[in-house]
């Protein structure tokens, strides 16, 4: 999600910033898991085992995406509520678009 329409677009206004290290650590684990799948394919491991690993990564990525969405919505909705109704409508439209992107993937 882009910065909140009510924010000054600085890092202090991104909802996830307090958990940035946690998100980055989780992303690094994904990288390791993807490298592991690459090795499994290279060694021609059983396809079901590879698919199991891919499923685990997919769920982990979804979890991070939902966490970022939740954190961002909390920050943006609070900012919008403080700024007034017009900004709230813009924020809700942006939030709805973000949810739709996640659902389509």
Automatic annotation (TrEMBL):
<protein>
    <submittedName>
        <fullName>DNA-binding transcriptional regulator, FrmR family</fullName>
    </submittedName>
</protein>
<dbReference type="GO" id="GO:0045892">
    <property type="term" value="P:negative regulation of DNA-templated transcription"/>
</dbReference>
<keyword id="KW-0238">DNA-binding</keyword>
<dbReference type="InterPro" id="IPR038390">
    <property type="entry name" value="Metal_Tscrpt_repr_sf"/>
</dbReference>
<dbReference type="GO" id="GO:0046872">
    <property type="term" value="F:metal ion binding"/>
</dbReference>
<dbReference type="Pfam" id="PF02583">
    <property type="entry name" value="Trns_repr_metal"/>
</dbReference>
<dbReference type="InterPro" id="IPR003735">
    <property type="entry name" value="Metal_Tscrpt_repr"/>
</dbReference>
<comment type="similarity">
    <text>Belongs to the CsoR family.</text>
</comment>
<keyword id="KW-0186">Copper</keyword>
<dbReference type="GO" id="GO:0003677">
    <property type="term" value="F:DNA binding"/>
</dbReference>
